[in-house]
């Protein structure tokens, strides 16, 4: 089967949804085909039931949202379905800061991004509008958006109000975390009902790409081929263009499918985008496809404090401070966000007391109550780490999918400067936790360090020099004029806070250039 | 080649028969539920609605689906299926409770006075080497499974904090800036049991 369209988007996640929506608006009548390896799971009407099964049994609320034979070593999510990982994201929509784009020129580390802050900020505003973000302007003037957030911020729970009072005794200012959750009906979706299970939002208040895809399909603006795995991009004779994408239909027993398009958009995320380029020997004249895989590291902790908290009021809503997004240039470099959640850590009901005595019935309840007199907070800092060139996604010769294609293997390697400051970074973050704990007679119960990089990105980093980057600031590959890489793979550095909004903002910026190409 | 996942599913399907059998035998179910009530008097607090807690636990067991896909959300890449029902272990455990009761001079565990039942349950938990309450039943022992199921529920958290937090309910945003209303627990049985389970804290976020 051969399908022709103006634009062929490979991958059906949040960046694909945003690009398709924007292209359809900017140039009505553009034929857009989306090929997604996973299935479409458009059963929102069952979400409440699935949520309940998940709460009770831990069952997957999106049955069949993965491919048995399409796994990768080092990935962070197996989800492969229309909607991608954002089907069950928490909806956090923090922005990066201006410093992220100028690490090299400001601090002499990593690389600068090939675009300016004002340009990115404009697309943050657009991303917030399209996703439906509820937030308040940040406590620090540098973080104020140039346009108002689309919705009023999430009502802080009683717990969060107390925690804010406590945390700000440190002198650090906090706000509610921006979220793609409706605090009023928005985008055809309902208002948040505070179900406390945002990853499985049963009301539709938290943005999910399947809503966008359904709207675009209903309006006849896209063609969506799910269960269609693109295995290879085919280059033109002179190598300057991508002529077609070769795929197999999982729904039709592996029948060959060919996509021909004026523009190809690779929107398959940080793992599968560079993977397809490597399989295709495409866009890789720099030798940097799959290199500079990045993300951010994190340190978390639990703090006990004097406060009567009620865990469970809205566990997924948190506070954020952006104070440490900025770092003076005359002190050792460290950048991080700082989040605070309600927590029940150390306060779970237990079967035995500290002496090993069995607690049954009333004794178990009395013990539980005694241990919940004081409150607890969970704290966490995502901090800046930067990748070495050896931080790579490569093809694993030992693991292949059912079609015989080698699967990806990802190994993160941090650059020398990041490794050199690791101890100091940890000491700084722990000192902040201790500073927070001073309020309300608190104490840090534990500190733990993440053993992976969160919100992974990179692998097709953007830049102005074709020798040191895979694509330009719009995601257009230096090697192929009609091939764009969208979102997460293009990031040169992974920032120090949740990255989904940044992926979307960059993708929206790319969409404008696609129409001009 | 049969994948590990397929094998689990196959196993799950094959294993489902005895689990369903447990449910389809009314007499057996009646015995199980009577024992659960007798256990509840020992392991659940007097302030709890024990009848509702037992009913919720029995419902959990009866609706367990062996081989069902489990959550593999962000940060959790392991694809797993639910294993054999914990309830497969219960008939033997119930039989052991009855044997212990008869050894102490009672006709059955259910018929034994509460202090004797307590001693039997304490010994059974020690023998099973259960050290902590699991958020979801594991089959380690029916008594600790019932206990863990209740104590990790939203309803038990409300009882602990003496407040209507309603952790697992969709509650709306208005009013959430105020402390939850106080729980009135004047009489056992006044609280219905809407039970969901979750780990005590939430990991990293997208």
- State the helicity of chain B in percent bands: 40-55%
The tally of strands of chain B reads: 0
Rg on CA atoms of chain A, Å: 23 Å
Written as H for each helix and E for each strand, in order along the chain, the element string of chain B is HHHHHHH
Taking pLDDT < 50 over at least 5 consecutive residues as the criterion, the unreliable ranges of chain B are: 1-24, 187-194, 199-203
- Indicate the proportion of strand residues of chain A: 15-25%
Rg over CA atoms of chain B: 19 Å
The chain pair forming the largest interface, with residue counts per chain, is:
A-B, 79 and 72 residues
Which bin fits the share of residues in helices of chain A?
Answer: 10-25%
The tally of strands of chain A reads 16
Main sheet of chain A, how many strands, which sense, barrel? 7 strands, mixed
Q: What fraction strand of chain B?
A: under 5%
Largest sheet of chain B: none
- The ordered string of helix (H) and strand (E) elements of chain A is EHEHHHHEHEEEEHEEEHEEEHHEEEH
Helical/strand content category of chain A: alpha+beta
Oligomer category: heterodimer
Characterize the overall form of chain B: globular
Helix/strand structural class of chain B: mainly alpha
- What distance separates the N and C termini of chain A? 27 Å
Number of helices of chain A: 11
List the total number of helices of chain B: 7
Summary of the model, kept short:
The complex is a heterodimer of chains A (517) and B (206). Chain A is built from 11 helices and 16 strands.
């Amino acid at each position: 089967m051969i399908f022709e369209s103006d634009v062929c988007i490979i991958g059906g996640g949040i960046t694909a949804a945003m690009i398709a929506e924007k292209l359809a608006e900017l140039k009505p009548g553009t034929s857009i085909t989306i090929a997604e390896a996973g299935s479409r799971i458009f059963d929102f009407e069952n979400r409440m039931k699935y949520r309940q099964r998940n709460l009770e049994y831990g069952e997957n609320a999106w049955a069949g949202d993965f491919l048995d034979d399409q796994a990768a070593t080092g990935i962070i999510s197996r989800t492969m379905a229309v909607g991608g990982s954002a089907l069950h994201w928490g909806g956090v929509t923090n922005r990066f800061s201006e410093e992220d784009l100028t690490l090299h020129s400001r601090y002499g580390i990593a690389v600068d991004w090939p675009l300016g802050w004002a340009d990115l900020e404009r697309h943050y505003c657009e991303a917030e509008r399209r996703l439906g973000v509820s937030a308040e302007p940040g406590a620090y003037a540098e973080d104020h958006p140039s346009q108002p957030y689309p919705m009023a911020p999430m009502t802080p729970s009683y717990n969060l109000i107390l925690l804010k009072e406590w945390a700000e005794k440190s002198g650090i200012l906090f706000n509610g975390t921006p979220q793609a959750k409706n605090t009023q009906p928005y985008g055809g979706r309902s208002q948040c009902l505070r179900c406390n299970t945002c990853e499985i939002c049963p009301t539709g208040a938290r943005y999910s790409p399947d809503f966008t895809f359904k709207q675009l399909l209903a309006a006849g603006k896209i063609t969506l081929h799910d269960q269609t795995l693109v295995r290879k991009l085919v280059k033109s004779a002179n190598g300057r263009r991508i002529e077609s994408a070769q795929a197999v239909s999982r729904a039709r027993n592996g029948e060959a499918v060919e996509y021909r398009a004026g523009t190809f958009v690779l929107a398959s995320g940080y793992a599968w985008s560079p993977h397809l380029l490597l399989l295709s020997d495409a866009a890789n004249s720099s030798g940097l496809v799959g290199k500079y895989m990045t993300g951010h590291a994190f340190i978390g902790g639990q703090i006990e404090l004097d406060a009567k908290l009620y865990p469970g009021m809205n566990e997924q809503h948190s506070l954020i401070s952006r104070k440490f997004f900025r770092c003076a240039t005359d002190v050792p470099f460290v950048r991080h966000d700082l989040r605070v959640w309600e927590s029940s850590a150390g306060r779970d009901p237990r079967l035995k007391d500290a002496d090993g005595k069995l607690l049954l019935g009333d004794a178990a309840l009395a013990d539980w109550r005694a241990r919940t007199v004081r409150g607890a907070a969970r704290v966490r800092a995502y901090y800046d780490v930067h990748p070495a060139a050896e931080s790579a996604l490569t093809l694993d010769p030992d693991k292949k999918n059912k079609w015989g294609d080698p699967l990806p293997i990802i190994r993160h390697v941090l650059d020398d400067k990041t490794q050199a400051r690791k101890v100091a970074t940890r000491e700084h973050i722990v000192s902040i936790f201790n500073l927070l704990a001073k309020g309300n007679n608190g104490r840090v119960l534990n500190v733990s360090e993440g053993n992976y990089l969160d919100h992974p990105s990179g692998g097709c980093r953007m830049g102005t020099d074709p020798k040191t980057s895979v694509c330009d600031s719009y995601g257009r590959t230096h090697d192929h004029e009609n091939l764009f890489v969208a979102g997460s793979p293009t990031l040169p550095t992974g920032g120090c806070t949740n990255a989904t909004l940044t992926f979307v903002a960059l993708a929206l910026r790319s969409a404008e250039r696609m129409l001009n190409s | 080649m049969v994948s590990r996942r397929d094998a689990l599913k196959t196993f799950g399907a094959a294993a489902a028969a005895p689990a369903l059998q447990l449910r389809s035998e009314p007499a057996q179910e009646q015995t199980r539920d009577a024992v659960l009530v007798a256990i509840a008097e020992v392991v659940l607090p007097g302030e709890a609605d024990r009848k509702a807690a037992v009913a919720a636990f029995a419902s959990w067991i009866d609706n367990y689906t062996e081989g069902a896909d489990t959550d593999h959300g962000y940060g959790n890449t392991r694809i797993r299926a639910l294993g054999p029902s914990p309830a497969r272990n219960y008939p033997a455990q119930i039989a052991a409770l009855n044997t212990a009761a008869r050894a102490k001079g009672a006709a059955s565990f259910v018929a034994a006075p509460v202090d004797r039942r307590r001693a039997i349950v304490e010994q059974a938990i020690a023998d099973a080497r259960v050290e902590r309450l699991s958020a979801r039943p594991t089959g380690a022992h029916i008594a600790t499974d019932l206990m863990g199921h209740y104590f990790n529920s939203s309803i038990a958290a409300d009882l602990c904090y003496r407040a209507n937090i309603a952790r697992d309910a969709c509650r709306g945003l208005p009013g959430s800036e105020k402390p939850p209303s106080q729980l009135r627990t004047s009489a056992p049985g006044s609280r219905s049991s809407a039970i969901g389970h979750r780990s005590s804290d939430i990991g990293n976020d997208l």
